[in-house]
Every structure is written in structure tokens, then in C-alpha cells.
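WARN no homologs supplied; continuing
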Amino acid sequence: MVKKLFLISFVMIFSTSLCVASDFRDAQWGMSKEQVLSLEKTRPLYSSNESLTYRGKLANIQVHIIYEFLHGKLKSGVYQFIQNYSNNNVYLKDYKNISDLLDLKYGNPDNRKEVWNNKLYKEKPLYHGNAISMGHLFLESKWTTDTTIIVHNLSGNNNLISHSVNYFDKNVKIHDDEKVDKLELNVL
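OK structure emitted
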């Protein structure tokens, strides 16, 4: 009986140590492009030395799933929402739903911003979606884990709205302008 308990305990400890937490989807920072390709079940829409782009759904919303590489290693990932709506307030609803899911997974954010660049529609909630599309309102939330910085934002300009969740490897040094510029250029 003691041998069985010891064996069960050993198997549980050993199997737990084999479980590696993921940083973005099922991937870990530092993985090669080939390793990431093996994790996804479909072929990418776009592939280059610096990125892989897939089409998928997050919370039943169409997204592009973007893996970004620097010097051959995974350094960031993005869910870029591509669903289009005729009513701009639906983007706000999606943002709230995704924020709620991120809150469930990561807890309360480190910060949550609502920035009004122009307060024309601030007191008119029915026009907040239009305020986003005109660049009057910007929403952002940020979470931090042991290995990752997660930034969720909703912004707009010239009647176009951008909604994304960005995952960044915390080990990419912010002061290293070359790395940051290269990662930012890949998102554009």
C-alpha cells in the first residue's frame, strides 16, 4: 500500500513538472517558427521570417492570430479582431466581453484606461462607438504575468476601429529600440 501511494505521488509530481505554462496560445516565448507551426492545426494565411498569421475565432469573434519572431525566436503574439460591424457600439460590446474574459483568466488588470481626446460624446453613451471610430476615445487594459505583458486595446481614427489583444515577452527589453521597433513594425 505504501509503495502504491509513493508511486502515485511520484507520478503526480513528475507529470506536474512536465506541464509547461504557455505564454501565447499553446506557445512559449523563445520557441522557433517551426515549433510554433507544429502547434497550430491549420496552415498560416501569411508566413515570413518575422511572423506567422492565422485566421481563427476568439470568443466567437473573427480574429487574425499573429505570432511575431525576433532573431528566430517567438517574442510576441496578437489577436487582431477583424469582425466588421455597421454599428460601432458593437465594438465596445466585444471589448467589454474580451476584457471580462481576460479578467477571469488573469485577475484585475494592472491598469485600465479610458482616455478622452475629445469629450464631444463623453456624456452620450449611444455615441461612444462613434467616438472610438473618430479617435475621440481610446480604451486600454494591461495585465502582467511572470513572463508576459498583455495589452488589450480599442482605438480608432478616420472612422476605422482597431481592436486587439497583444502579448509581449517580458524579457524583450523596452529600451532596446531596435527590438521594439521591429516588433511594432510587424504588427502594422
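Confidence is low (pLDDT under 50) at residues 1-18.
OK
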